From TrEMBL:
NADPH-dependent FMN reductase-like domain: residues covered: 1-138
Species whose genome carries this gene: Tumebacillus amylolyticus
Pfam families to which the protein is assigned, alphabetical: FMN_red (PF03358)
InterPro entries registered for this protein in UniProt: Flavoprotein-like_sf, FMN_Rdtase-like_dom, NAD(P)H-dep_reductase
Protein name: NAD(P)H-dependent oxidoreductase
Gene3D superfamilies in alphabetical order: 3.40.50.360
UniProt record similarity statement: Belongs to the azoreductase type 2 family.
Domain of life: Bacteria
Length: 175
């Protein structure tokens, strides 16, 4: 089983990337192969439906095609997902997400990133993805240990559950 972890933050010290990595590690421990696409490291051009696709964009689309499920993370900017993440999702559609599990995590400059998680769930449901009900939301006050785990064990548990739930649903859907 192959999962794609899509990091929608461009911040080099991204809490979103750290939180998504917690979910990805839990998914790996549950038996999934997890491939990470970090939009900071592998940016995509601004979406233009009439433009020819460059090599990086074609690789992104192919990776998304091959995935059995997804872990997607975004920072919350102005009560919504990052523009970089929304742009990346514009390159793919229901051909990639139809009937596949999706786990969501987000980071907020305030207490919680509810609006971002709701908007991402709406987008991914419209692409026919199965968004798991359990999500991970971290605030500016949540911190990480040097080993990449959350300082707060409850947050660690919550984000791990996002990863393991995507693996469990993927297995269930595959029979």
């Amino acid at each position: 089983m192959k999962l794609v972890a899509l990091v929608g933050s461009l911040n080099p010290e991204s809490k979103t990337a750290k939180g998504l990595n917690v979910a990805a590690e839990a998914a790996r421990k549950a038996g999934a192969e997890v491939l990470v696409w970090n939009l900071r490291e592998r940016p995509l051009p601004i979406y233009d439906p009439s433009a020819e696709r460059d090599e990086n964009t074609l690789a992104f689309i192919q990776l998304m095609d091959e995935a059995d499920g997804f872990l997607i993370g975004s920072p919350e900017y102005h009560n919504g997902p990052s523009g970089a993440l929304k742009n990346a999702l514009d390159f793919v559609g229901y051909n990639q997400f139809n009937g596949k599990p999706v786990g969501l995590v987000a980071s907020a400059g305030g207490a919680i990133a509810t609006n971002t998680l709701v908007q991402l769930a709406t987008i991914l449901r419209s692409l026919h993805g199965y968004v798991i009900p359990h999500t991970g939301s971290m605030s500016y006050a949540d911190n990480f240990n040097a080993d990449g785990t959350f300082e707060n064990p409850k947050m660690q548990e919550r984000f791990e559950k996002v990863g393991t739930d995507v693996v469990a649903l993927t297995k269930a859907l595959r029979g």
